[in-house]
Amino acid sequence: MKTLGYYNGEIGELEELRVPMLDRACYFGDGVYDAAYSRNHKVYALREHIDRFYNSMALLNIHLDMHPDDLETLIRDLVKKVDADEQFVYFQASRGTGLRSHAVTAPMNANLWIMLKPCPIRDTYKKANLLAVEDKRFLYCNAKTLNLIPTVLYSTEAENGGYDEAVLHRNGRVTECAHSNISILKDGVLRTAPADEYILAGIGRAHLMRKCRSFGIPVVEEPFTLSEMMEADEIIVTSAGSLCIAAGTVDGKTVGGKAPELLRRLQDSLMDDYFRATEKD
Fold it and tell me: What is the rounded CA–CA span in Å between residue 28 and residue 24?
């Protein structure tokens, strides 16, 4: 198969599969999702993504009648059905199916969607150009919900302006990017926003933090400001598909570039982890 779509047990090409209009994802965005990447038909950090997926469902009281182990097995099997060696692996759970009503008065079983398409991870050595915008989103940022209109608006603004990503802030406090986490290196210390209700704690962020600790680089989870970010030795963007990308500019101003050897060491090691975990048998 060139692509793959899965909906509650039905499988087909993405362009051919259909879902019911009464799925609550269609009119409320009432659901959660997660995403990963695979190489050589091996999904990188899949269990971590699945654990976060179930945590997001728990935060919103969404019930999926499938054990995490079974979902992991299902995704690994589906990845093998797609021809491409490198794939974007997307899965979501909507709260369920029913006539439109804001209030959910009876238990519902979630609908499971899985979508696979050919797609490599981004070039971790190509610097990104960022745009700083005020973070005006609602709370529950720590749940990876389908309510992505703010993200769509920020991403559209960034792309129309020639930027790769938008970095968000609340009253000067940097939170995260539109669809990535952001951290800074300063004087040999990694600083990243705490995993509170203002950010979605990314898997890529966790990998970067673990890598820093393994190298003896102190990791501090505390807020930092826009001005502190602009003065950082390096600004690092992380996500499932952006393992460790440094910012080259913010609002057109050159940033970072002051700890290239440390940055490259982290990039090389994280890329090595990715290649080793996804190498052919």
Answer: 6
- What the block records as the tokens of 183 is 């951290």
Which candidate in 127, 144, 186, 280 is catalytic?
A: 144
Helix (H, G, I), strand (E, B) or coil at 42: strand
CATH number at 128-277? 3.20.10.10
Name 174's Cβ contacts closer than 8 Å, sequence gap at least 6.
167, 168, 182, 193, 223, 224, 225, 226, 228, 229
Q: 173 by DSSP, 3-state: which?
A: strand
Task: Tell me which long-range contacts 212-215 makes (C-beta under 8 A, separation of at least 24).
Answer: 212/266, 215/265, 215/266, 215/269
What's the pLDDT tens digit per position in 140-160?
A: 788 888 888 788 889 989 999
Task: For the domain made up of 4-118, give the CATH fold.
Answer: D-amino Acid Aminotransferase; Chain A, domain 1 (3.30.470)
Cβ proximity of 45 and 207 under 8 Å: yes
144 a catalytic residue: yes
Domain boundaries of the chain, sorted by first residue: 4-118, 128-277
Rounded distance, CA 219 to CA 231, Å? Answer: 18
Distance between CA atoms of residues 207 and 276, nearest Å: 14
Predicted TM-score of the model (pTM): 0.87
* Helical axes 46-59 vs 203-214, angle rounded to 10°: 130
